[in-house]
Protein: Cell division ATP-binding protein FtsE
Amino acid sequence: MIRISKVSKTFQINGEPRTALDNISLEIRAGEVFGIIGRSGAGKSTLVRTLNLLERPSSGQIIVGGQDITALDSAGLQRLRRRVGMVFQHFNLLQAKTVAENIRFPLKLGGELSAAQMDARVEELLQLVGLAEQRHQHPAQLSGGQKQRVGIARALANQPDVLLCDEATSALDPETTQSILRLLLDINRRLQLTIVLITHEMDVIRAVCDRVAILERGQLIETGEVADVFLFPQHAVTRALLAESHQAGATDLQSLRAELGASTHGPLLRLSFLDEAATQPLLSQLSLELHLQLNVLQGTIGRIKGRPFGQLVVELLHTEQDPTLLAKLQQALRQRDIRFELLDEPLEAAA
Ligand SMILES: Nc1ncnc2c1ncn2[C@@H]1O[C@H](COP(=O)(O)OP(=O)(O)OP(=O)(O)O)[C@@H](O)[C@H]1O
Structure:
C-alpha cells in the first residue's frame, strides 16, 4: 500500500545541513494500523509528512497505492492529499466556523459534491465521530477530545484510503486518549482504512497498532509486529523506551541483578507468552511435572491490541542440588512452544 524506499531528508539550518531522515525503507500494509515511535527530534513528524508531501524527501521514493508520489504534478498532488487524510496534535480547526462547517470545508474545496450531497456526508461523519449534538457549536465551546473528533471527521471527509495521525492524542488526558484511540480503531475496522500514527507513547502503540517502527536520530532502528517488538526488543533504544513506560521486554539484566543483590543465585530466565499460552497455569504445571521451583522476580501481564500476553523473569532454584534441572526446564518450555531467553547462568558458575 505504502512503500518508503531509501528516503532521506536534510534540512538546512543557518547554512548547515541537518539530517532528519537517513535512508529509511519500510512498507505499510493496506488496512493496518502502523505506529511510528521515537524520542523528540527522531524524525517522526518529518517521515509522516513525507507521505502526503507536506515535506518533500531530499532523496528516495514513496509509493502510495502503486504511484510514486515524489513524481506528481500539482494536480496529482491535490488528488493525493484527498486520498491521504491527516489529523494533527493541536487539531488545526477553523475557529470562526461551526463543527459542521469545519467538516464541510474539505468537501467544498474538493468541489465535487452538490450542497445536498455535502449535507448528507457531513451528517454521516457527525454520526461516525459521535458529534451530532455539537454540530452548531464552535471549536472554543468543545473539549479537547471533541475537537479531535472534529479533526478526524474532517480528515475523513473525502473518503481517504490512508489516515495520518501526528501525535493525535498527545494533547489529551488519558481517558480522552483512550476514547480517541477506540474511535480510530473502530474507523480502521469499519472503513478498512490504513492508519499511520506517530506517538512518543508506548501505551498508544500497544493499544492500537499492528506493527511499529522505531526511529532514532533519523534512522529506522527496529520494525516489526507490535507483540514481537514489545516482548523481544532487539535494540537498546527500544528497550529504553519500553523501560520508560514500564512495559514488558524492558528488563535490563544488569540493573535487575543490582536490584536483587545477593539474594538470587540461580539461573534467570525470561518467559514470554502470547494468546492461548498466556491463559495457562504454566508455572504450577512445570513445578508439578518437573519437581522444580521457580521464583518470580518480575512480571507484566496485559494485552497488546487485545491479545493477552505475559512476560515473567524467573529464577530457577536448587540447580546446585540437581544440575540437570535447567536443561529439563528448557526442554519443557520448547515442547510447549513458550519463548524464553536464558538471561544468565547461576552467579556461582559465572564467578
Ligand atoms: N522545517 C524544518 N527546518 C529545519 N529543521 C527541521 C524542520 N523540521 C524538522 N527539523 C529537524 O529535523 C529533525 C527531526 O524533527 P521531527 O520534527 O521530524 O522529529 P520528531 O520525532 O517528530 O520530534 P517531536 O516528537 O519533538 O515532534 C529535528 O532535528 C528537527 O529540528
In short: The radius of gyration is 24 Å. The chain has two domains: 2-245, 253-342. The first strand starts at residue 2 and ends at 13.
